[in-house]
Amino acid sequence: MDKLIIAGRTFTSRLLAGTGKFASNEAMVAALENSGCEIVTVALRRVDIDNPKDSLLSHIDRERYLLLPNTSGARDAEEAVRLARLARAAGCDPWIKLEVTPDPYYLLPDPIETLKAAEILVKDGFVVLPYMPADPVLAKHLQEVGVATVMPLGSPIGSNRGVRTRDHIGIIIEQATVPVVVDAGLGAPSHAAEAMEMGADAVLVNTALADTADPAAMARAFKKGVEAGREAFLAGLGPQRDKAEASSPLTGFLRDD
Amino acid sequence: MNLIINGQNKTFAAPLNVAELLLRLDLDKKPVVVELNREILIADKYVDIQLDDGDTLEIIQFVGGG
Fold first, then answer.
1. Which domain holds residue B43?
2. In this predicted structure, what is the pLDDT of residue A251?
3. Cβ contact (<8 Å) for B40 and A86?
4. From CA A81, how far away is CA A74, in angstroms rounded?
5. Separation of alpha carbons A99 and A149, rounded Å
6. Number of CB pairs < 8 Å for A and B?
7. Does B61 score more than 90 pLDDT?
8. Could you state, in order of their start, the residue ranges of all structural domains in chain A?
9. Separation between Cα atoms, residue A188 and residue A216, nearest integer Å
10. Peptide bond preceding A52: is omega within 30 degrees of 0, i.e. cis?
11. What dihedral angle (degrees, nearest 10) is formed by the CA atoms of B61, B62, B65, B66?
12. Is the Cβ–Cβ distance between A14 and A198 less than 8 Å?
């Protein structure tokens, strides 16, 4: 498949994977392996000081995967910037999945605070990948402040409902000057394929892998979905028509009319 | 000396630097990040930073996330 380039860095896989909600670290490792992903998202949380657990990082091969810390939990730009700086202090490459979600029910991204934080973080030297509403005007503003990708949502985080924002994602793809990563809400390989067929550069999934009976098998299925969608996009889908157009030649030898 | 660590009140005998605190909490070998009174600390400096009564610390680590 053709390569994905984000901020000058080249990736073979167009599937980004999250590391949340897996039943075990073993299930996560197997899913990451089968997904073929090269970028994995992680979150930052307080250590339970009375009962410190094994670090997630001991299960993720940092030679193989680029860690993409997110700012989940941030309700405004200030909190997001604080989380991003903590992630960088933890020794990560300065890549950040910017996520500002003040509403706990739908976890929809705050466009104003996301834009504010993006501007601060880009100036501070971060490679910023913002999770955002599927708003083409906001995508333009984010690109103007120098983000590395735009990541419009297909549907609310963890909802598995697919590309419900299809028309607006289409406009974002048409106008984008940076890679478009459809993030959030993709629940099936067909959803991932749909986004890729539309011309998205990549997709990010987590719940769709983690919250299944067999994450490793689902990861393999998503890998195929993403590859199929990309190949179809590159091949160019045939035109849609309102009426039938026969696939077999109508030779007319059964009757003369 | 009283410290507020991740929102909890904890008592330690002074003097105590950040490296010693992490050792006491069994976090010295874990990949954590430390914020002291909202300032992010650099790991190389942990031994040089003495903690004072009333200091607020956040000790953060990576967890699974999307």
1. 2-60
2. 72
3. yes
4. 9
5. 13
6. 100
7. yes
8. 4-46+56-235
9. 14
10. no
11. 130
12. no
Contacts of A86 (CB under 8 A, 6+ apart): A44, B33, B35, B40, B60
B15 part of a folded domain: yes
DSSP result, A185-204: ---SHHHHHHHHHTT-SEEE
Enter the pTM of the model. 0.92
Name the residue type at position B52: D
Mean pLDDT confidence for A76-83:
96
Average of per-residue pLDDT across A109-132 = 98
B23 inside domain: yes
Global ipTM:
0.91
**A97 flagged as catalytic:** yes
Contact A55 B61 (CB under 8 A): yes
Give the pLDDT of residue A17.
98
- Half-sphere CA count of A131, side-chain side, radius 13 A: 32
| Per-residue buried b or exposed e for A89-98, using 16+ beta carbons within 10 Å of the residue's own CB | bbebbbbbbb
What average pLDDT does this structure show over A64-72?
A: 96
Residue B66 lies in a domain: no
Residue range A4-46+56-235 forms a domain whose CATH class is alpha beta
Count how many domains chain B has. Answer: 1
- From chain A, the residues in CB contact with B6 under 8 A are 46-49
3-class SS of residue A43: strand
A46, A52, A204 ranked by CB distance to B58: nearest? A46
Please compute the mean of the pLDDT values over residues B4-26 and round it to a whole number. 94
For range A109-123, the mean pLDDT? 98
Q: Which of the two residues, B42 and A121, has the higher pLDDT score?
A: A121
DSSP character at residue A155: S
Q: How many residues does chain A have?
A: 257
pLDDT of amino acid A185: 95
pLDDT at A182 over 70: yes
* CATH number for B53: 3.10.20.30
Token pair 């002074």 is found at B14
Q: Is residue B65 part of a domain?
A: no
For residue A257, is pLDDT > 70?
Answer: no
